[in-house]
Design a protein that fits this description.
Elements lengths: L2 E4 L4 H12 L4 E5 L14 E4 L5 H10 L6 E4 L6 H4 L3 H21 L4 E7 L22 H20 L2 E7 L1 E3 L16 H9 L6 E4 L11 E2 L1 E3 H14 L7 E5 L6 E2 H12 L5 E4 L8 E2 L4 H7 L8 H14 L7
Parallel strand pairs: 1-2, 1-4, 2-3, 4-5, 5-6, 6-11, 7-10, 8-13, 9-14
Antiparallel strand pairs: 9-12
Length: 331
């Protein structure tokens, strides 16, 4: 299939684009490079620089591709939950309104397969763990709400326009897919890269936001999933959309095992042999105490099997990337 990957210059999008290319799917990346990196785009992928808010640019893209796209994979989104509680309007504009513009353009072009990078943040403070796909959704931050609105749009577009879609809900993507493809955000707010910045001597300490949560050690618990395992799940979902009976797929992606912030710090200390000082800070608005996802459904239905399920392997791969790319991708 010929696939359009929006946000394909970003962390997860670039790894998925690489996975698709290795499987023989031609890939076009569409990215405005505001948070992505030109150097992250796989060499065999075509890069088109543009913005999802620009409907005319999207229409031109769909028209100009002589072979036509068979599917769209959508990763272009703002992802920082804390930031979403300061400027929610940015998230609803970028994540929700721009997704609608993209959906309108692809439907106008007759493209009916869509794989959506969603989030376990939809569930807010979950009623149980591990979270299953049919559990109640109550986002506690604007980021999660902006993604939930897209999922609701997809359901209606499926019912009314026959859109085949897959929505993959995951929380903490981490690790590096290979020594030359890893996580590089500016500024960096994700826990594992921030910890590794301390180990590299680029920061004096790492902040722990909230130590009074109802967890074993008072810090938030999250489910970490290797970015390569995410990529394989996206490819399986795309392949599954070829089956007529399976034209709407919703899956959680996770290891089913949660780790507290303090536990992640301890693993990083072991991997890096660095003391990694911490400073305890107040909670951030909108952070649920525990988010751990069950992935039994996608394992059962699509045969997904993560190759890197343990936290130490994830941190080791991230450490290898950050040691060799302390400044991220070259500019």
């Amino acid at each position: 299939m010929r696939v359009l990957v929006t946000g394909g210059a970003g962390y997860i999008g670039s790894v998925v684009a690489d996975e698709l290319l290795q499987a023989g799917h031609p890939v076009v990346v569409f990215d405005n490079l505001s948070r992505g990196h030109r150097q992250a785009v796989p060499k065999n992928a075509e890069l088109v620089v543009g913005d999802l808010a620009d409907r005319a640019a999207l229409d031109q893209l769909f028209r100009s591709d002589s072979r036509g796209f068979d599917a769209v994979m959508h990763f272009a989104a703002l992802i920082e939950a804390g930031e979403s509680m300061k400027t929610p309007e940015k998230f609803f504009r970028n994540n929700t309104a721009n997704a609608l513009t993209l959906l309108e353009a692809m439907l106008a072009a007759g493209v009916k397969r869509f794989v959506f990078s969603s989030t376990a943040a939809l569930f807010g403070n979950p009623e149980r763990t591990p979270i299953e796909e049919d559990d109640s959704v109550h986002p506690t931050n604007a980021y999660g709400e902006s993604k939930l609105l897209v999922e609701r749009m997809l359901s209606w577009f499926h019912q009314i326009h026959g859109l085949r879609y897959a929505s993959l809900r995951y929380f903490n993507a981490a690790g590096a897919s290979r020594p030359d493809r890893g996580e590089a955000h500016q500024p960096e707010t994700h826990l594992i890269p921030r910890i590794l910045e301390v180990a590299l001597g680029r920061a004096e300490h790492v902040n722990i936001f909230g130590t009074d949560y109802p967890t074993s050690d008072g810090t938030c618990i999250r489910d970490y999933i290797h970015v390569s395992d995410l990529a394989s799940a996206h490819k399986l979902a795309l392949d599954a959309l070829e089956d007529e009976p399976r034209n709407s797929l919703i899956y959680n992606l996770g290891s089913g095992q949660g780790f507290s912030v303090r536990q992640v710090v301890e693993v990083a200390r072991e991997v890096t042999s660095h003391p990694i000082p911490v400073i305890e800070s107040p909670r951030r608005a909108g952070d649920p105490a525990v988010l751990v996802a069950s992935s039994e459904k996608i394992r059962r239905e699509l045969g997904w099997q993560p190759k890197f399920p343990d936290l130490k392997t994830i941190v080791e791969s991230a450490w290898q990337w950050h040691r060799t790319h302390p400044d991220g991708y070259p500019r």
